[in-house]
Amino acid sequence: EAGVAQSPRYKIIEKRQSVAFWCNPISGHATLYWYQQILGQGPKLLIQFQNNGVVDDSQLPKDRFSAERLKGVDSTLKIQPAKLEDSAVYLCASSLSQTANYGYTFGSGTRLTVV
Amino acid sequence: TQLLEQSPQFLSIQEGENLTVYCNSSSVFSSLQWYRQEPGEGPVLLVTVVTGGEVKKLKRLTFQFGDARKDSSLHITAAQPGDTGLYLCAGPSYNNNDMRFGAGTRLTVKP
Known about the structure:
The complex is a heterodimer of chains A (about 120) and B (about 110). Helices cover about 0% and strands about 50% of the residues of chain A. Chain A is mainly beta and about 120 residues long. Chain A is globular. The relative contact order of chain A is 0.33. In chain B, strand 7 and strand 8 (about 70-75) form a beta hairpin. In chain B, strands 2, 4, 5, 9, 10 and 11 form a six-stranded mixed sheet that branches. Chain B has a five-stranded antiparallel sheet with strand order 1-3-8-7-6, with no helix packed on it. Chain B has no helices and eleven strands. With about 110 residues, chain B is mostly beta strands. The interface between A and B is medium-sized, with 26 and 26 residues.
Protein backbone atom coordinates (compact mmCIF):
# COMPACT_ATOMS: atom_id res chain seq x y z
CA GLU A 1 0.00 0.00 0.00
CA ALA A 2 1.15 3.55 -0.61
CA GLY A 3 2.56 5.31 2.42
CA VAL A 4 1.81 8.70 3.92
CA ALA A 5 2.76 11.38 1.41
CA GLN A 6 4.02 14.79 2.49
CA SER A 7 5.15 17.83 0.58
CA PRO A 8 7.30 19.76 0.26
CA ARG A 9 10.29 17.85 1.68
CA TYR A 10 12.20 21.03 2.49
CA LYS A 11 11.25 24.67 2.92
CA ILE A 12 13.31 27.71 3.84
CA ILE A 13 11.48 30.93 4.66
CA GLU A 14 12.19 34.20 6.39
CA LYS A 15 10.64 34.95 9.76
CA ARG A 16 7.19 36.52 9.57
CA GLN A 17 6.48 34.79 6.25
CA SER A 18 3.77 32.16 5.91
CA VAL A 19 4.15 28.52 4.90
CA ALA A 20 1.87 25.56 4.27
CA PHE A 21 2.48 21.83 4.40
CA TRP A 22 0.39 19.12 2.77
CA CYS A 23 -0.30 15.53 3.82
CA ASN A 24 -2.08 12.66 2.10
CA PRO A 25 -2.63 9.77 4.55
CA ILE A 26 -2.89 6.08 3.77
CA SER A 27 -6.16 5.31 2.06
CA GLY A 28 -8.83 4.36 4.56
CA HIS A 29 -7.01 5.73 7.59
CA ALA A 30 -9.55 7.87 9.42
CA THR A 31 -7.13 9.31 11.98
CA LEU A 32 -4.49 11.85 10.98
CA TYR A 33 -1.87 13.51 13.18
CA TRP A 34 0.52 16.41 12.74
CA TYR A 35 3.66 16.28 14.88
CA GLN A 36 6.48 18.80 15.29
CA GLN A 37 9.99 17.42 15.82
CA ILE A 38 12.60 19.96 16.87
CA LEU A 39 16.22 18.90 16.43
CA GLY A 40 17.31 16.69 19.31
CA GLN A 41 13.78 16.07 20.55
CA GLY A 42 11.07 13.51 20.01
CA PRO A 43 7.96 14.32 18.00
CA LYS A 44 5.37 16.49 19.76
CA LEU A 45 1.69 16.32 18.83
CA LEU A 46 0.24 19.46 17.30
CA ILE A 47 -3.21 18.30 16.21
CA GLN A 48 -5.22 15.11 15.71
CA PHE A 49 -8.10 14.66 13.27
CA GLN A 50 -10.70 11.89 13.18
CA ASN A 51 -12.11 12.05 9.65
CA ASN A 52 -12.59 15.80 9.16
CA GLY A 53 -13.16 16.63 12.83
CA VAL A 54 -10.56 17.82 15.33
CA VAL A 55 -10.00 15.41 18.25
CA ASP A 56 -7.18 17.24 20.02
CA ASP A 57 -5.55 20.58 19.21
CA SER A 58 -4.58 21.52 22.75
CA GLN A 59 -0.87 21.82 21.85
CA LEU A 60 -1.36 23.76 18.63
CA PRO A 61 -0.20 27.41 18.92
CA LYS A 62 -3.42 28.74 17.50
CA ASP A 63 -2.22 32.33 17.25
CA ARG A 64 0.00 31.29 14.33
CA PHE A 65 -0.72 27.68 13.42
CA SER A 66 -3.84 26.37 11.70
CA ALA A 67 -4.77 23.03 10.19
CA GLU A 68 -7.65 21.60 8.27
CA ARG A 69 -8.70 18.28 6.85
CA LEU A 70 -11.42 18.94 4.35
CA LYS A 71 -13.41 15.89 3.23
CA GLY A 72 -11.60 13.73 5.78
CA VAL A 73 -8.68 12.83 3.52
CA ASP A 74 -5.86 15.30 2.75
CA SER A 75 -4.71 17.77 5.36
CA THR A 76 -2.83 21.05 5.34
CA LEU A 77 -0.91 22.69 8.18
CA LYS A 78 -0.20 26.41 7.96
CA ILE A 79 2.07 28.71 9.91
CA GLN A 80 1.48 32.45 9.67
CA PRO A 81 3.61 34.31 10.61
CA ALA A 82 6.59 32.00 11.15
CA LYS A 83 9.08 32.50 13.96
CA LEU A 84 12.68 31.29 14.23
CA GLU A 85 11.64 28.70 16.84
CA ASP A 86 9.30 27.06 14.32
CA SER A 87 12.33 25.55 12.58
CA ALA A 88 11.66 21.82 12.84
CA VAL A 89 10.56 18.75 10.95
CA TYR A 90 6.78 18.57 10.58
CA LEU A 91 5.60 14.97 10.48
CA CYS A 92 2.23 13.72 9.36
CA ALA A 93 1.03 10.31 10.52
CA SER A 94 -2.11 8.30 9.96
CA SER A 95 -3.74 5.40 11.73
CA LEU A 96 -6.58 3.02 11.06
CA SER A 97 -7.65 3.17 14.70
CA GLN A 98 -8.65 6.22 16.73
CA THR A 99 -6.79 4.90 19.75
CA ALA A 100 -3.03 5.12 19.98
CA ASN A 101 -2.29 1.49 20.76
CA TYR A 102 -1.82 0.19 17.25
CA GLY A 103 0.94 2.47 16.05
CA TYR A 104 1.18 5.07 13.37
CA THR A 105 2.52 5.24 9.85
CA PHE A 106 4.55 8.40 9.44
CA GLY A 107 5.38 10.32 6.32
CA SER A 108 8.93 11.44 5.58
CA GLY A 109 8.25 14.89 6.96
CA THR A 110 8.83 18.47 5.86
CA ARG A 111 11.99 20.10 7.14
CA LEU A 112 11.28 23.79 7.77
CA THR A 113 14.06 26.29 8.31
CA VAL A 114 13.09 29.81 9.37
CA VAL A 115 15.86 32.37 8.91
CA THR B 1 2.62 14.49 32.63
CA GLN B 2 3.59 11.07 31.24
CA LEU B 3 7.17 11.98 30.46
CA LEU B 4 9.32 9.32 28.81
CA GLU B 5 13.04 9.60 29.47
CA GLN B 6 15.42 7.78 27.18
CA SER B 7 19.04 6.93 27.87
CA PRO B 8 21.66 7.23 26.74
CA GLN B 9 21.04 10.24 24.54
CA PHE B 10 23.88 9.27 22.19
CA LEU B 11 25.63 5.95 21.63
CA SER B 12 28.48 5.20 19.22
CA ILE B 13 29.73 1.63 18.93
CA GLN B 14 31.65 -0.65 16.58
CA GLU B 15 29.99 -3.17 14.35
CA GLY B 16 29.48 -6.48 16.15
CA GLU B 17 29.06 -5.02 19.64
CA ASN B 18 25.95 -5.45 21.77
CA LEU B 19 24.01 -2.55 23.27
CA THR B 20 20.99 -1.72 25.40
CA VAL B 21 18.98 1.49 25.42
CA TYR B 22 16.37 2.42 27.99
CA CYS B 23 13.01 4.15 28.22
CA ASN B 24 11.81 5.14 31.69
CA SER B 25 8.79 6.91 33.17
CA SER B 26 7.20 7.53 36.53
CA SER B 27 3.82 6.83 34.91
CA VAL B 28 2.22 3.49 34.13
CA PHE B 29 1.50 2.90 30.46
CA SER B 30 -1.00 0.50 28.93
CA SER B 31 1.54 -0.15 26.18
CA LEU B 32 4.81 1.18 24.84
CA GLN B 33 6.05 1.37 21.29
CA TRP B 34 9.54 1.56 19.83
CA TYR B 35 10.27 3.36 16.57
CA ARG B 36 13.45 3.80 14.51
CA GLN B 37 13.96 7.01 12.59
CA GLU B 38 16.63 7.32 9.91
CA PRO B 39 17.95 10.71 8.79
CA GLY B 40 15.48 12.51 6.56
CA GLU B 41 12.69 10.02 7.19
CA GLY B 42 9.77 9.63 9.54
CA PRO B 43 9.78 7.16 12.45
CA VAL B 44 9.00 3.54 11.60
CA LEU B 45 7.22 1.35 14.13
CA LEU B 46 9.34 -1.59 15.31
CA VAL B 47 7.23 -3.15 18.06
CA THR B 48 4.42 -2.64 20.55
CA VAL B 49 4.68 -4.18 24.02
CA VAL B 50 1.51 -4.51 26.04
CA THR B 51 1.91 -6.91 28.96
CA GLY B 52 4.13 -6.22 31.98
CA GLY B 53 7.27 -8.36 31.73
CA GLU B 54 6.66 -9.06 28.05
CA VAL B 55 9.67 -9.81 25.86
CA LYS B 56 9.50 -9.53 22.08
CA LYS B 57 12.22 -10.37 19.59
CA LEU B 58 12.68 -8.94 16.12
CA LYS B 59 15.72 -10.64 14.57
CA ARG B 60 18.67 -9.19 16.54
CA LEU B 61 16.49 -6.76 18.50
CA THR B 62 14.98 -7.74 21.88
CA PHE B 63 12.37 -5.53 23.50
CA GLN B 64 11.28 -5.84 27.12
CA PHE B 65 8.42 -4.15 28.96
CA GLY B 66 8.97 -3.68 32.67
CA ASP B 67 6.86 -5.64 35.15
CA ALA B 68 5.27 -2.43 36.42
CA ARG B 69 4.75 -1.12 32.86
CA LYS B 70 6.74 2.03 33.59
CA ASP B 71 9.86 1.23 31.61
CA SER B 72 11.16 -0.63 28.61
CA SER B 73 14.48 -1.62 27.13
CA LEU B 74 15.79 -2.40 23.67
CA HIS B 75 18.77 -4.71 23.31
CA ILE B 76 20.59 -5.12 20.01
CA THR B 77 22.89 -8.08 19.50
CA ALA B 78 25.84 -7.86 17.11
CA ALA B 79 24.99 -4.36 15.91
CA GLN B 80 25.37 -3.56 12.21
CA PRO B 81 25.81 -0.22 10.42
CA GLY B 82 22.25 -0.59 9.17
CA ASP B 83 21.05 -0.28 12.77
CA THR B 84 22.21 3.35 12.83
CA GLY B 85 19.36 5.73 13.59
CA LEU B 86 17.29 7.47 16.24
CA TYR B 87 15.42 5.03 18.50
CA LEU B 88 12.27 6.50 19.98
CA CYS B 89 9.97 5.06 22.60
CA ALA B 90 6.37 6.22 22.80
CA GLY B 91 3.37 5.63 25.01
CA PRO B 92 -0.32 6.49 24.77
CA SER B 93 -1.49 9.78 26.23
CA TYR B 94 -3.80 9.76 29.24
CA ASN B 95 -6.86 9.74 26.98
CA ASN B 96 -5.33 7.12 24.67
CA ASN B 97 -5.83 9.35 21.65
CA ASP B 98 -2.22 9.94 20.70
CA MET B 99 1.33 8.81 21.40
CA ARG B 100 3.78 10.76 23.55
CA PHE B 101 7.41 10.35 22.52
CA GLY B 102 10.69 10.34 24.36
CA ALA B 103 13.61 12.39 23.02
CA GLY B 104 15.26 9.27 21.62
CA THR B 105 18.65 7.57 21.62
CA ARG B 106 20.82 8.37 18.62
CA LEU B 107 22.78 5.23 17.74
CA THR B 108 25.76 5.16 15.41
CA VAL B 109 27.27 1.81 14.45
CA LYS B 110 30.68 2.16 12.84
CA PRO B 111 31.88 -0.44 10.32
